[in-house]
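Write out the 3D structure for:
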Amino acid sequence: MSTATVVGAGPNGLAAAIALARADVRVTVLEAADDIGGGTRSGEAIVPGLLHDHCSAIHPMAVGSPFLRGLGLDRYGLRWAWPEIDCAHPLDGGTAGVLHRSVTETAAGLGADGRAWRRLLQGPSAAYGSFGDDIMGPLLRLPRHPVHLARFGIPALTPASLLAKSFRTEEARALWGGVAAHAFRPLERPLSASIGLGILTAGHHYGWAVAEGGSRRITDAMAALLIDLGGKIETGVRVRSVPQLPPADVTVWDVTPTALADILGDLLPPRIARAYRRYRYGPGAFKVDFAVEGGVPWRAEAARRAGTVHVGGTYAEIAATERDIHAGRMPKRPFVLVGQQYLADPSRSVGDVHPVWSYAHVPNGYTGDATAAITAQIERFAPGFRDRIVGTVVRTTPGFAEYNPNYVGGDIMTGATDIAQLVLGPRPTLQPYDTGVPGHYLCSAATPPGPGAHGMCGAHAAARALRHLRG
């Protein structure tokens, strides 16, 4: 029987382990932390019983993941839940851009911009179930559904700022800008529309779901399946060098390219070692979890029913903040993402005290305290918010890197989303999961299709490892 070691028990590491175990490979997963999950961990904070997601929280890409959907994780307790409204983007006047799962319903709420929204998203969203596989893997390959992919891909190649010109109302422009800003990239750059379009297309097809009981339920279910398949998971094991590894036929690494360059050292071909060491990281995140009595008193009524609220003002404001953080400047009014997961999953609350999840986009390695700026941004669109706060828990930008070593400088995307890295991964190659060292494969979110709890990076890396095992 062939054997494999997987280093890292986040969604991608566990996905790789499951794919290998399903192919009758004996798998051992080594996790440096004391608990599994990587960015999907959740826990109680502030008030006993109040459940907060530590990092990833809203999962349009995971609920539609071609790999996860085929695992039957509902047998292991994974349940998805949806809010009434997927996302709202409030503006100062009390209005908001509102994103529903339905393209038609979203377009109806955008008035004069409804036709443009439908033209951009209706076709790709309806077809996402068939061509989603094409965008959830390496882009440099022959697509299975080239026509559908072209309808999605041609706009995705453009700057987000160009697509913003398709909309006339500030509500539509801001709604688009807030989703596009998930890329942590200046919105004027080529390909900056791609991540926003990916989120919107998947979201309109599957919805912006949360995992009941916290994001931890995703990897808890994956771990339970792996154990049923005969796999093993060992926590508290930090791998710093190859000699630490148990003997195995293949090793799959859920780590950053720079970390892997240090671990594999001289085993790496020099050109690949250089590429891994030059791998670039993007802006960081600063997170504040709130316990809020009675919920957030948003001025825009739709925001009170939205699982996600983008707090950043107009499109022009968001574009300016993304330019600032990319240049290493901390904006006075940062772009803030707010999660109200309890609206879809009331089990996270304690009575009338609710967990409110938030983080701001900040420069990579930011060492300041953004708590006041985040609070002020929410208060700006929800007067009286401060008076409802029962308590807070902060994860600083350096704290993100301590929490998960893959988040270098607080970069929760595991790498800058510039053109080269978004298309090619950590190095120019048609096989971004191969390391150049026989039997060793990279599966972190630094590889295509990138960040998220979808597990697809791990599934693709495992496929390469299985090809090696089969000769």
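Residues 145-151 have pLDDT under 50 and may be disordered.
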